[in-house]
Specification:
heterodimer; A: Alpha-Beta Plaits; eight-stranded antiparallel sheet; five-stranded antiparallel sheet; 20 strands; about 25% helix; globular; B: alpha/beta
Chain lengths: ~425, ~250
């Protein structure tokens, strides 16, 4: 399988793909003259994980666990280890990943390079904040251990550094203790975007994990109606750490035709989904898998979007006038023929990341998945960028396939500082699109 | 389930590591043998991190048959009692690369057949002495029929399969099980860069192997489809088979 990003747009042709398993092979994979980029499991959406016309170092086999102290919850593993595999080892010992994105099929290296965040950002910040140290291997043969106290510049540049500062060989994480794999979950219906935000602010004080799914295809006053999901790990009462019988993974075996996910079908799905829950409030105890990773149960769900692929758009805007800003972004997309499944809304907290190019900042973040419907959608997304930039917000590189370079650069105040730490032999399709524009 | 004591020869191979990970979870104790010291250390630490209660290492080039007794002594004395011995070392080369190279052809035989048979024999005797255990040999579906594209490797694996069959007959009455594993092509560094049919996932193959060990199976085709595929392959007349491009 050629390397692709999760949005399956744009496509790239790599001239060289190395798949090292051992350290000496990794060193060899970095030799040569073309540029290279470390590639994990291809779960970023656009082109931040691609290096069209040049080399890729596929990291998924470089995935051994180097040490795991079950008493302190400190784990050190090679960067190609997936969160999924890490969880299979740490959960039975009573530990969980401090931060997780919406899929467990990401590597530790990818989690650092994109400084991923999760439903608990308001409590603990990004993934990078929990990285005690990592090792960075540069193309000139230099190897350095980076941490908050050693090689601090490279440490800050590599967290959220999109793989451009060299290859991360191992990552040392401080894990979070759990007494059970069960999650106490509550879902609460909100009739408008305003109500979603109010419920979020209320929930964030007491709940470790909060996120909302909103219907962006609804019109008028009910625009942004949705469901707030809040959860916390159960305490010892039902303290099972043994994993339940794993259910068969469903797979999408082929690229679906484009009508499968088109405006009418998505609109119908969203309405059905919102009305599935009749009561205003619903409580249940669920396993952590369906709570954190509902979509992982369907392998390759991205293929439902057909051969043209999908675009994901994630931005963060300040709290002040946040609802109005999000409404104007959604409005642009509605006019631009963008059809989106349930969009995700979350409030980022004030914990700052050490990463120079880290995406999260305090405010509201909005995420939408859209079938790649072509030019009109691209134009609408450009207008969304304008809105985000005008309020001092940001667009997330790990989701992006199309933002204008100058726009992106204007959103990241540490850009020029970051550039000096890039490894001269590292590059990506995303980076050339941004930097050379 | 009580934790098992397991010897793995060729412990840095992807399939061996896949199986070992599954037992490490249940606090297994390991004696690990491989050629590359640095890589073997990585594997030992990985298994410890995954729950193994013991993992000792022994470095040896397995072609060096003179050292095989030493390997067996190390493993048996290190673990005390051995529940499972897994012979997983192997060497794969493109047939066309070695078509005109008899030394390389014999090296394929040395690693995959002679050395494997030597260790199977020695560990068989050791298990007989303790009166229990399971011996697992990694063979291949390639050993079921000689074919143009992979006959040196195939012939070596064929020798291993037949040898293990005979051993099974010998040890069955003694309560010692011999398991022959016949994987199809598996997505591992060994097969990287080759275009192969029905490439299987190493985790799936590892699960199959663990299950076959635990249920004392005799011959395992993994993935299971290969039992059917090979039955068909074996039934094709030689004159036709050798003209087929497979």
């Amino acid at each position: 399988m050629p390397a692709m990003s999760w949005g399956r747009y744009p496509r790239a042709q790599h001239t060289r793909e190395e798949t090292p398993e051992w350290r000496q092979q990794l060193v060899r994979a970095m030799s040569g003259h073309d540029t290279f980029l470390a590639f994990g499991l291809g779960r970023s959406y656009g082109d931040v994980c691609l290096n069209d016309g040049a080399g890729l170092v596929r990291m998924h086999r470089f995935s051994h666990i180097l040490s795991f102290d079950t008493t302190t919850g400190v784990l050190r593993a090679e960067a190609g280890l997936s969160i999924a595999e890490m969880l299979s080892v740490i959960i039975p010992a009573g530990w969980f990943t401090p931060v997780t994105p919406g899929t467990k099929f990401v590597t530790l290296g990818g989690a650092v390079a994109n400084d991923v965040h999760g439903k608990n950002h308001h409590k603990v910040g990004t993934f990078g904040r929990h990285v005690r140290a990592f090792e960075l291997m540069r193309s000139d043969g230099t190897v350095m251990v980076c941490s908050p106290t050693q090689h601090v510049d490279q440490y800050r540049a590599t967290i959220g550094g999109m793989g451009l500062t060299g290859i991360i060989t191992w990552v040392e994480l401080q894990l979070t203790p759990i007494a059970s794999r069960m999650v106490e979950e509550q879902s609460i219906k909100a009739r408008s975007l305003q109500e979603v935000v109010e419920l979020t602010e209320e929930a964030d004080a007491d709940w470790d994990y909060t996120v909302s799914w909103i219907d962006v295809m609804a019109s008028g006053g009910s625009l942004g109606k949705g469901i707030l999901l809040r959860g916390r790990f159960s305490d010892a009462a039902d303290g099972s750490l043994a994993s339940p019988q794993s259910s068969q993974l469903l797979r999408v075996p082929f690229d679906a035709p484009s009508w499968v996910l088109s405006r009418p079908t998505i609109k119908a799905f969203n309405t059905l989904w919102y009305n599935k829950q009749l009561a205003r409030e619903h409580r249940r105890h669920v396993d952590l898998e369906p709570f954190f990773y509902p979509l992982d149960a369907i392998g390759n769900w991205n293929r439902l979007y057909g051969t043209r692929g999908m675009l994901q758009y994630q931005c963060v805007v300040p709290m002040q006038n946040g609802v109005a800003t999000m409404k104007s972004i959604i409005g642009e997309l509605q006019r631009g023929a963008g059809a989106s499944f349930l969009a995700v809304v979350k409030k980022f907290g004030s914990h700052t990341s050490p990463g120079l190019m880290s995406f999260p900042q305090p405010g509201l973040t909005l995420t939408l998945d859209m079938p790649n419907s072509g030019r009109r959608l691209f134009a609408a997304l450009d207008r969304c960028d304008d809105i985000v930039a005008s309020v001092g917000g940001r667009v997330y590189a790990a989701k992006d396939a199309r933002i204008r370079g100058d726009r992106f650069i204007s959103m990241y105040e540490n850009y020029s500082e970051f550039v000096q730490y890039i490894d001269p032999r590292c590059s990506s399709s995303f980076w050339r699109r941004i930097h050379n524009s | 389930m009580s934790s098992k004591s397991i010897v793995i020869i060729g412990a840095t191979s992807a399939i061996a590591h896949g199986v070992a990970k599954l037992y490490a979870k249940d606090k297994a104790r390991f004696a690990l043998v491989a050629r590359n010291a640095q890589n073997l250390d990585v594997i030992a630490n990985d298994l410890r991190s995954r729950g193994a209660s013991h993992a000792s290492t022994f470095i040896a080039d397995l072609k060096d048959i003179a050292r095989h007794d030493e390997i067996v002594r190390f493993a048996m004395s290190d673990l005390g009692r051995v529940d499972i011995v897994i012979l997983a070392h192997g060497l794969l080369k493109d047939q066309t690369e070695i078509d005109n190279d008899v030394d390389a052809t014999l090296e394929i035989f040395e690693v995959n057949a002679t050395s494997m048979i030597s260790l199977a024999h020695r560990f068989g005797c050791a298990l007989e002495k303790q009166g229990s255990g399971t011996l697992v040999g990694l063979s291949s579906v390639a050993g079921e029929r000689g074919r143009r594209a992979l006959y040196a490797y195939g012939a070596a694996k064929s020798a291993v399969s037949e040898f293990l069959s005979g051993m099974r007959g010998r040890y069955l009455p003694l309560g010692i099980n011999v398991l022959t594993v016949k994987p199809g092509p598996v997505d591992t560094p060994m097969t990287a860069g080759r275009t192969l049919p029905l490439l299987a996932n190493v985790d799936k193959v590892s699960l199959d192997i663990r299950k076959a060990i635990d249920t004392r199976k005799h011959v395992l085709y993994t993935p299971g489809i290969w039992r059917v595929v090979m039955a068909i392959m074996r039934s094709i007349p030689e004159g036709i088979f050798q003209r087929m491009k497979i």
